[in-house]
Structures are given as C-alpha cells and as structure tokens.
Amino acid sequence: MRVISVLGVQSTGKSTLLNTMFGLQFPVASGRCTKGAFMTLLNVKENFQEELGCDFILVIDTEGLRAPELASLGDSNEHDNELATLVVGLSDITIVNLTMENKTEMKEILQIVVHAFLRMKQIGKKPNCQFVHQNVSDVSAKSKITRENKLLLEQLDEMTEVAAKMENYNDITQFSEIIDYDIERDNWYISGLWHGVFPMASISTGYSENVKELKMHLLKFIKQKPHSDSCSINEFIEWIRSLWNAVRHEKFIFSFRSSLVAKKQRI
C-alpha cells in the first residue's frame, strides 16, 4: 500500500483537487471543519499492481487546520501540529495545498509542515512533498512563477533553520536538508476550477489538465519507489499506533503557534 495525503487550510479547492484527481467524493464546503481527516482506500487494478508496486493507495484529506472553531481552545495549535505530523508521517507523498486566499494562514501551515518533516527526519523517514498553488489567475507567467518559487524556498529555509534550532539540530539550515525538494519539479500552479461566477460559470479545461499532470507525476514517483518500501495494511495499522504514541508522548514542540512566534518568545 502507498499513502498520499494533502495538507492545507480547508477550502473547496483542496477537497475538489483530490476528488478530481482520484474520482473521490470527499465533502466539499466553503468553510472549515474540525473532523480531523478523511481517508479513502483505493483499489489498484490488477494490471497496474506490479507496475506501481502496491495493491492499494490510501488518500488522506486533512480537515480543521487553522479552523476558527478551534481558535478559542488553548491547545488548538497543538492539535494542528499533531495532526500534520501524524499525516506527514503516514504518507509516501504529501501535497501541501497553497491557496491564494489567505497568505498569512498559508505561512502558518508551512511552518507546521516544516516541523513535521523535521520530526520525520529524526526517525529516518523522508517522504516526498509537492506544493500546489491553487486559484492562480495566469499560470503562463513563467517569470512570476519563478519569483514566487524562490520566495517560497527562502521562507522554507528560514522556517527550517528556526525549527531545527528549537529541536537541537543546529547544523540544519535549509529545507532541502530535511526533504528531497526541487524548486522546479515540486511546485504546481493550478488555475481556478470555474470560469466566471458560480453557479452560472463554466468549468475550466485548464484546471483538469493541470490536475491530470500532477496525478501523472505522483504515479511516476510511486513507480520509481522500491517495491519493498510498500507496506501491508497490517503493517500500516501498526505504524499508525507507533507514530501516534510518538506524537502524543515524545517531546516535540507542539504548543507554539509557529516556529517564528516561538523564536520571538525565546528571545
């Protein structure tokens, strides 16, 4: 079995992306909820099982990150960090959904994700990560995309250095040191689903084409992974138990709102 997950602030775009890519029926809503995560087990057709090296693909859709419903609770940030760490730890591929709707919340999600990948490095696990930028008005503007990719990498490097120092990894200063990341290969820009105002708007063919390209890339990555890296359902269940115990009892930094906020509090 292989595991693909998606992280990000809950929006219609995130669940719609998975529904379109895999033909799923995850709930789609304009608001945010606090259900934790939705999971669906996909059966791989027999003629593709040997090629992909697995019989099933598990797709996880996280819910509730940065949810307003949890903001009043004292441990809401700890909830987000624990959920992100658990999902990243379970996954072979993590899709980080970056909508253009609220860049402040997106930065907070990135800080959570950096901590999660750093914790996985501590236990020798190095999942793949794909950044999906949704609702982009002009995906053909190559110069703009290049600038945004470089800015994203600068932010990830800064967050990684701060997070590493907080967890006593003073020799780690770059995001690429905790995960195999390529600025050109691992960023995807997807236009909005609709042309015009819903419900009278038409569906964008460009959206479907972009999602198909991403899906093909994910399947190519799975094909290239050693078949021995795949796990059985029983092994996956045991890994969930072990990882959850580690999340709940190890001394990970879960209580801070973000790495940068934690840094300011320590100064």
Question: Would you kindly provide a written description of the structure presented here, covering whatever features stand out?
Answer:
The protein contains eight helices and eight strands; from the N terminus they run βαβαβαβαβαβββααα. A hairpin with a 6-residue loop joins strand 7 and strand 8. 46% of the residues lie in helices and 16% in strands. The model has no long low-confidence stretch (mean pLDDT 78).
Overall spatial form = globular
**How many beta-strand segments?**
8
Number of domains: 1
Q: Helix content range of the residues, please?
A: 40-55%
Strand arrangement across the biggest beta sheet: 2-3-1-4-5-6
**Topology as H/E string?**
EHEHEHEHEHEEEHHH
Average pLDDT over all residues: 78
CATH H level: which superfamily? P-loop containing nucleotide triphosphate hydrolases
What is the topology?
Elements: E1 2-7, H1 12-22, E2 37-43, H2 46-52, E3 56-62, H3 76-90, E4 93-99, H4 103-122, E5 128-134, H5 142-166, E6 187-190, E7 194-195, E8 202-203, H6 205-224, H7 233-249, H8 259-266
Parallel strand pairs: 1-3, 1-4, 4-5, 5-6
Antiparallel strand pairs: 2-3, 7-8
Helix pairs in contact: 1-6, 3-4, 3-7, 4-5, 5-8
